[in-house]
Amino acid sequence: MGRNYKIGVIKGDGIGPEIIDEAIKVLDALSANMGFNLEYNEMLMGGAAIDATGVPLPDETIQGVKKCDAVLFGAIGGPKWDNVERHLRPESGLLAIRKEMGTFANLRPAIVYDELVNASTLKPDVVRGVDIMVVRELTGGIYFGQPRELFEDRAYNTMVYTREEVKRIAHVAFEIAMKRGKRICSVDKANVLEVSQFWRETVIEVAKEYPEVELTHMYVDNAAMQLIRNPKQFDVILTGNIFGDILSDAASMLSGSIGLLPSASTGKGVGLYEPIHGSAPDIAGQGIANPLATISSASMMLRYALGEGAAADKIDDAIKKSLAKGYRTGDLGAYDAVEICSCSEIGDIIAKYVSQ
Ligand code: NAD
Question: Same domain for 16 and 36?
């Protein structure tokens, strides 16, 4: 008897369904000969859920994800739902599900594949060998802080962190650093914000439990600059919700395209595995989206949620092999491409490699 896993699947909006279909194609090709079985349970969230049920996060989805071993998610949002009330916007569904699932840690690797050093907008020497893990706090900070209010002539949000919230995300970062280069750069704005001073003091406290890890601190404005100037100086970046959101998008461009980078949102229970990009409404339905970020997210799901590391290695190797052979979607197309491929052709190629 093989291992059986229940996978929640939320395709979402825009390119979401296209990229998720390719990840599932790869997972199916892989599970057949790796001795495990994946049972998919599709659920609604975002614009698709608004259209079908009137709300961005139906109760059925909240209950459904809790019964899964992991959730694979595409992306949500789009101009169609831009003018609905804020609490009914597609994005509020994503914020709410992260909170419901207790996924307080967002892991965002930014890796530059050797085969794509020319695809970055930065010089090859600057990006070659970059391998950064951004550990972003996901369920606290200014995106969730109360009070928050929008009036006609003024508006405010509140950036709050509790000691417990900072400690638990710091522990995640230190554990990851122990398995990598044993260096953490904690990013904050402690020169201006009290909440950042508190963040820094708390991270220093946690660091005492990990004497092997070297901890440094950097202000977020400098970190944005250093990521572009000399990204290889970073191993693990530990930061809060809003700073991590911005820095990880900046870091994604080191790799050449936002369409390459996966993420894992983990925490107390079931984890959410998703590309870092959005629903790309500008290219939705054209079959040209890059599915690699989602296929890599499926790899992270196998590794971190299901403990199927060998299967994850197969996906990672297949991605490298396809890039080395010159297969590219259009977002990477201008650089050293042998063949410009559609979203589903890339899925076919990776599926073929993982089943070899
Ligand atoms: P986006 O990431 O969707 O797109 C930014 C740019 O990158 C676009 O030009 C897009 O075509 C390109 N791009 C993104 N993914 C790509 C891929 N896989 N292959 C090729 N090109 C790709 O960001 P945006 O345009 O700011 O937002 C569009 C919508 O997505 C908005 O409604 C936004 O709220 C939502 N969004 C959702 C998530 C999520 O679901 N996690 C994250 C960010 C934005």
Answer: yes
Asked if 51 is an active-site residue, the reply is: no
d(CA 329, CA 316): 17
Mean pLDDT in residue range 209-229: 98
Residue among 92, 248, 258, 292 whose CB has most ligand 1 atoms within 8 A, to mutate: 258
Q: Which of 65-79, 80-94, 151-165, 231-245 has the lowest mean pLDDT?
A: 80-94
Tell me, yes or no, whether 249 and 267 share the same domain: no
- In this structure, are 237 and 272 located in the same domain? no
CA nearest ligand 1 atom 11, residue: 280
Pocket of ligand 1 (CB under 6 A): 15, 75-78, 91, 94, 258-259, 274, 277-283, 289-290, 293, 331
Domain boundary among 253, 271, 306: 253
Residues 268 and 290 in one domain: yes
pTM here is: 0.90
Q: Determine the Cα–Cα distance for residues 304 and 161; give it in Å rounded to an integer.
A: 26
Q: Give the model's pLDDT for residue 32.
A: 80
Range of the structural domain that residue 135 is part of: 131-253
Distances in whole angstroms, Cα of residue 56 to Cα of each of 62, 143, 249, 270, 291: 11, 17, 24, 20, 24
| Whether residues 325 and 279 fall in one domain | yes
